[in-house]
Each structure stands twice: as structure tokens, then as C-alpha cells.
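Project outcomes to date are best conveyed with an example. Our students and postdoctoral researchers have been running inverse folding experiments weekly, and each run begins with a structure described purely in C-alpha cells. The record below, which covers 134 residues, was selected by the lab manager from last quarter's runs and is presented without edits.
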């Protein structure tokens, strides 16, 4: 095998994905409250750079409360208004409990994630997310 052929072969190998390499999963789940209630408790698990987006349908003027408890201190949540890509609530700086009045009809997105320091290490987080509206 010539030097040029060998170099091309090795470059091609380097470009292949590594078997078993972790891929971040972005999961979207619709939140449904049990019949006759105004809230729910969700138990979940994420790893590394995984993200779970919970969509909560609300009407303008409702009071929404979100609380997160996790066994990994680097687990947080953000909240985005319907149609907005930027979060207005950032759990890493605003805390693990959010309470606000909705100003738009539609699906509010609650995104649960592991902060970069722990995600980089592929750490796992088991969490409990409580969401309610009034």
C-alpha cells in the first residue's frame, strides 16, 4: 500500500463514528394531567447530553408551577413560552422551583437537562418533575 493510499485509508477511518459512542437524545413528551386534577408528577431519567422536552398546554392567565428534584445536582430545567426558542426561566440561575402567570395560549416547553460539566462525563440523573396549573 502506497503512503498516499495508506494516509487516505487512515483519514477515512478517523471520520467513521466510533461504535458505541453516545448520541444525545432529544425526546418530546406531551404532559397530560390525570382526570380531575390540575397537575402531575413525572419520574424520569436522562444521561449525558440527553434532553427531555415536556409540552404543557395552557391558557393565558393561568398560574403555572414547575419543581424539579434530582439525584444529580447538575440537573436543571428551562421554560419557554409557546413559539419562543429562548427560555424565559433558566433553572441553573433561577432555581429548581418556578411559579409564573402564563401570558400566551399554547404549549409551554419545560426542558430537563444535565449541565455541561456532568453531561460531558456521561453522568445519569434520575429526577422528579412536578407540574401544575391553576
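After processing, the design step wrote out the following sequence:
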Amino acid at each position: 500500500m502506497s503512503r498516499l493510499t495508506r494516509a487516505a485509508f487512515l483519514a477515512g477511518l478517523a471520520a467513521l463514528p466510533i461504535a458505541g459512542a453516545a448520541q444525545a437524545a432529544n425526546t418530546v413528551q406531551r404532559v397530560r394531567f390525570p382526570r380531575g386534577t390540575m397537575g402531575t408528577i413525572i419520574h424520569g431519567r436522562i444521561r449525558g447530553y440527553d434532553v427531555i422536552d415536556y409540552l404543557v398546554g395552557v391558557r393565558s392567565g393561568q398560574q403555572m408551577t414547575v419543581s424539579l428534584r434530582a439525584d444529580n445536582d447538575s440537573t436543571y430545567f428551562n421554560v419557554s413560552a409557546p413559539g419562543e426558542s429562548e427560555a424565559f426561566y433558566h433553572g441553573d440561575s433561577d432555581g429548581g422551583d418556578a411559579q409564573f402567570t402564563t401570558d400566551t395560549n399554547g404549549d409551554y416547553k419545560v426542558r430537563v437537562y444535565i449541565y455541561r460539566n456532568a453531561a460531558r462525563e456521561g453522568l445519569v440523573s434520575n429526577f422528579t418533575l412536578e407540574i401544575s396549573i391553576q
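The chain has one domain: 22-133. Residues 22-133 form a domain with the Jelly Rolls fold (CATH 2.60.120.380). The training component of this project remains on track.
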